[in-house]
Amino acid sequence: MFQTSYVIRFGDCDPAGIVFYPNYLRWFDATFHALLRSRGRGHQDLCAELGIVGMGLVEVGSKFRSPATDGDELTVAVTGAEWHDRAVRFAYRGSVGDRVVLEGFETRGMFVRKGEALGLSSTAPLKAYLEQPAVT
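Given the sequence above, the corresponding structure tokens read:
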């Protein structure tokens, strides 16, 4: 569906020299935003167009398969999307070369203002946007 790469730096690692796990969640998020941009718009512009406040997380998780360290090039791929009326679950796989480092997911909702509170709206406009071909 989409992929991008990140070079792991010393500052991304814990004292044992392996990637500090919250960084994987940061790279999942960055990959999602790169996916949006690959279709022509960033998060803020797309939210304005769709009339939503944001595309925020409602659930996130991962399974760590093998360590990644300083100097590795981590490729993060969006491997699929499970669409529901008010949420979408994106599947991710992180790998260094052919070695799978982690698999994970983000469930995102399309947030709108409902008075003083936030509520969820339909994911259909986001699905239609992401089904467009990548902008070259």
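The helical segments are 22-38, 43-50, 124-130. Try to locate this feature in the token string yourself.
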